[in-house]
Automatic annotation (TrEMBL):
Membrane topology summary: Peripheral membrane protein
Protein localization: Endoplasmic reticulum membrane; Microsome membrane
Annotated Gene Ontology cellular component terms: endoplasmic reticulum membrane
GO function terms (MF aspect): heme binding; iron ion binding; monooxygenase activity; oxidoreductase activity, acting on paired donors, with incorporation or reduction of molecular oxygen
Protein name listed in UniProt: Cytochrome P450
Keyword annotations of the record: Endoplasmic reticulum, Heme, Iron, Membrane, Metal-binding, Microsome, Monooxygenase, Oxidoreductase, Transmembrane, Transmembrane helix
Alphabetized Gene3D superfamilies for the sequence: Cytochrome P450
Main location: endoplasmic reticulum
Residues annotated as transmembrane: 14-34
UniProt-listed SUPFAM superfamilies: Cytochrome P450
Family: Belongs to the cytochrome P450 family.
Cofactors, names only: heme
Organism from which the protein derives: Dendroctonus armandi
Keyword Kinase: no
């Protein structure tokens, strides 16, 4: 009797899973046929050879660190605009600056691609993942916080943590090669925590190791989900250990920011807007909410904090790491940068903000580093209404 019950249970579950698989295949096939119908409008555009159902998915079917290089090589073979397919997803790729400028300035192209939903689960709906009217409203209110005159007030904080980093790196002098990104990652975390959310941390001395591990691992899992189609199916992803791992990372990060938000809200309600001369990004966001009540809820503030933190910390760490590597690979330019620093600042004088404007060689190194290793090399937009760009007519 027990055997029959077990057999009946297995049969019911087998039918259930077979039905699920059939439905998924049916949806994929339907979306493929729909995208194929849309392709007829752009058959004149060049692009790599498509495979049935797969499209050009084999281009990104490789190690994660090789994906960007493969895409650059593929996109470099065809004029802009070009077509590119990954399974049922159909993309028009634009590379010319004038075309990209039109995309970024067209109101009907402010909706992000569905792929941003995977980032949204981890980061929330901040400036990176928000779309349409919400993105335009938030961008208008938050952009002034990123202006140079606002960021300049944080120079003393940056200098203080940079000096701590210098003292730590002195112990690595004359030793074998080491991973400088490990140290830069923690120094930038201390700077970002103090300037964006107003919390003094000691990440350079191991205080935030679990938090930083969750940040790194969370984005690794998001990236893995983007490039592996079977992880994009929600119910399949939830069956994997990666879902539990991503959920824990999200809870650790958002929990940290919730705690900070409650602390800052208490002081904000008592001190008001102009009590502190150097106001953090979070305090300025609370100022905006005082003036524009529908700007954001507490949960949306958490999303903005996570986005600001991730974008600032990862960007600064990546730029500095790549710049140091480039200087190591090209010692002749390293010498020019060092000589310039000696002539502008000297050995004894303390660095000040005015010195930075005179370090032309260093600025050129950073700009060339950004050209070689762009922070956001791909921007994905979803068409909400027809628009003509170059030789292509983008349809909804």
């Amino acid at each position: 009797m027990l055997f029959l019950q077990v057999l009946r249970f297995l049969q019911m579950n087998l039918v259930y899973y077979c039905t699920e698989v059939f439905c998924i295949l049916l949806v994929i096939l339907a979306k493929y046929m729909w995208s194929k119908r849309r392709k007829c409008a752009v058959e004149g555009l060049e692009g790599p050879k498509r495979l049935p159902l797969l499209g050009n998915a084999l281009t990104v079917w490789c190690k994660q660190e090789d994906i960007f290089e493969n895409l650059v090589e593929c996109f470099g073979k065809y004029p802009s605009p070009m077509r590119f397919d990954i399974f049922q997803h159909f993309f028009l790729v634009f590379k010319e600056p004038a075309q990209v400028e039109k995309i970024l300035s067209t109101s009907s192209l402010t909706y992000k691609d569905d792929i941003y939903e995977f980032i949204k689960y981890f980061d929330g709906e901040g400036l990176i993942t928000a779309s349409g009217p919400k993105w335009k409203k938030d961008k208008r209110l938050l952009s002034p916080l990123l202006l140079k005159r606002n960021i300049g007030q944080y120079f003393p904080v940056m200098l203080n943590h940079s000096q701590v980093l210098r003292r730590i790196l002195e112990h690595e002098a004359d030793r074998p090669a080491f991973d400088i990104q490990h140290y830069l990652h923690r120094a930038v975390a201390d700077i970002v925590n103090e300037t964006i959310i107003g919390v003094q941390t000691n990440a350079q001395f191991g205080e935030l190791d679990d938090f930083l591990r969750c940040i790194d691992r969370g984005y690794q899992l998001v990236h893995e989900r983007i490039v592996k189609p079977w992880l994009q199916v929600e119910f399949l992803f939830r069956l994997t250990p990666k879902y539990q791992e991503l959920t824990r990372a999200r809870q650790v990060i958002h929990g940290f920011f919730w705690k900070v938000l409650h602390q800052v809200q208490k002081s904000h309600s008592h001190l008001g807007q102009k009590a502190i001369p150097c106001r953090t990004i979070l305090e300025q966001m609370l100022d905006i909410r005082d003036e524009v009540p529908d700007f954001s809820t507490d949960e949306e503030l958490i999303h903005h904090m996570t986005t600001f933190y991730s974008a600032s910390e990862d960007t600064a760490t990546s730029i500095c790491s790549f710049a140091v590597v480039m200087l190591g690979m090209y010692p002749e330019y390293q010498k020019r940068v060092v000589d310039e620093i000696r002539s502008v600042i000297g050995w004894e004088e303390e660095l000040c903000e005015e010195h930075l404007q005179r370090l032309d060689e260093l600025q050129m190194v950073l700009k060339e580093t950004l050209r070689l290793f762009p922070i956001a090399p791909l921007l994905l937009r979803k068409v909400s209404q027809g628009v003509e760009i170059g030789r292509a007519i983008c349809c909804q």
